[in-house]
Amino acid sequence: MAVQFGGLVSGLDTNNMISQLVKLERQPINRLRTRQRAVETEISNLGKLSSKMKDLATKLEDFSETAGILANSATSSNEDALGATASGDASSGIYKVVIDKLAQAEKNRSQAFGDSLGQVTAGTLDIAVFDEDPVSITIEEGDTLADVRDKINASDASVGASIIDTGSGAYLSVTAQKSGHTVGGTPSDAVVITETYTGTTGAQLGLTETQTASNAQFSVDGLAVERTTNQVTDVLQGVTLDLKAESTDPIEIAVAPDPEKVMEKLEAFTEAYNATVDALKSAQEESGALARGALSELSTLVSSAVTGAASDFVNLSSIGLETQWGTGKLELDKSKLEEVLAQDPSALAKLFTTTDTGLSATMGSALERYTDGYEGIIKTTQDGLRDRVDRFENQIEDRERAVQAYEDRMVRQFTRLETLMNEMNAESARFASAMPMGMMMG
C-alpha cells in the first residue's frame, strides 16, 4: 500500500475521507452479512424444531405396543422371597407361587498356590458353558496364577475368574456367568473344564467343583416350573418374577392396572405434542410453508377417527385428550381418562397401537417424513439453506476484494494529490526566492 500523507500538505483530513468512502462501499457487505445470519438462524431453528418433533416421535414409538402405553402393577405378599414387576400387556389376576429351589451358578476352584505369583504348568484350558463351543486358553511357560486369571477373563468363555488369598494359600476360583444348567439335563452339563498340561515346571491347577449348578424350581398356581435363572420373564405374560429365597408357604402375586402410570405417560405425550406445536408456530415466520404443512398434518391426525379403533373410542377426544380451540394444543381431561381406563383400557391402547392406522403409526410416519436424517423435509430444507449461506459467503468475499481494491485506489489518488500539491508548493517557494527583493516588495 502507498504511503499516506494524511493531508499534511493539503490540510484535508484525507484518512478520514477515505475511511468514510470505504464505509459507504462496505454497506452492501453488511447487508449480505445480515441476510446470511438470518439464514443461519433459520437453519439452527429448524434443527431445534426437528429435535422437538423427534421427542414426540419417541413418545409415539413407545406407544406402538400395548405394553408401552398401558401400565400394570405387581405386588408380592413376601418381597423378601419373591419380587415382581408387570408391564402394560400383563393380565390382571392373583397368582400363588411356591419356591422350592433357587438357581445358582457352578463354581470351580484350583488347588492351593503359595500366592498369586505361583507358577502354573504350561498347557491349555478348554472351557465350555452350557451348549456354547469350548474356548481354549493357552498357559505359557512361566505364567503365574494371576496370568491365568487374566487370560480367562480376557477370553470369550462365559465364566469369571478371581483369586482367593487366604493368607496361607492362593486359589483360582472360576464361576459360570450363567446360573443353572440345561433344562432336562444334569448339573454336569453346566460347565465343562478340560485341563491339558505339556510343561514340566510349575503346578497344575487341579480345578474341582465347589458349587454345583442348579436350576430354579417353583410352582405357579400348582403348576411346576423349572428355569435356569432366578429372573423369570416367560411364565406369566408381562410379569417378571425375581426369585430371592426358598419358601414353603405360597406367596401371592397380585397384578392390577396402574392408571396413574398411564396418566403420566399420556401427560408426557401431551407435553411433547404441545412443545412441537409451539415450535412449529415459532417457525412459521422463517419457514412458513414447511411449518404450516407440518402443523396442519399433525392437527388433522389428532382430531381424526382411527380406523380399527373401538367403536366408543375412535379418537383422542373420546379418551380425554381435547384439542384446544385457538391454540391447537392438547389438554388432558383426567376425569374422562380415568373413566376410560376403568371401562376399557384396551380401547385406549388401540387408538395408538392399531397396525398401520393407529396414531403411533400414522403420526410417527408423518414425523419421520420431516425428521429423517437423510431425506427428511427438514434435512433437505436445511441443505438448501446451507447452499444459500455458501453463496452469500462467496458474494461477501467478492465484495471484500472489491472494497479493498477501492480503498487502495483511493489511497493512491489522495497520495498523488498530496504529492502534487507538495511539489507545487516547493516550486512556488523556489520561484519566490529567485525574485529580486525590490520586485517582491514592489
TrEMBL record:
Gene Ontology biological-process annotations: bacterial-type flagellum-dependent cell motility; cell adhesion
Residue ranges of every copy of the Flagellar hook-associated protein 2 N-terminal domain listed in the record: 10-105
Database matches in Pfam families: Flagellin_IN, FliD_C, FliD_N
Domain (Flagellar hook-associated protein 2 C-terminal) ranges: 213-426
Subcellular location field: Secreted; Bacterial flagellum
Residue ranges of coiled coil: 382-409
Keyword set, alphabetical order: Bacterial flagellum, Coiled coil, Secreted
Domain of life: Bacteria
A single GO cellular-component term on record: bacterial-type flagellum hook
InterPro entries per UniProt: Flagellin_hook_IN_motif, FliD, FliD_C, FliD_N
Function: Required for morphogenesis and for the elongation of the flagellar filament by facilitating polymerization of the flagellin monomers at the tip of growing filament. Forms a capping structure, which prevents flagellin subunits (transported through the central channel of the flagellum) from leaking out without polymerization at the distal end.
Assembly: Homopentamer.
Similarity remark: Belongs to the FliD family.
The name this protein goes by in its record: Flagellar hook-associated protein 2
Lineage: Bacteria, Deltaproteobacteria, Bradymonadales, Bradymonadaceae, Persicimonas
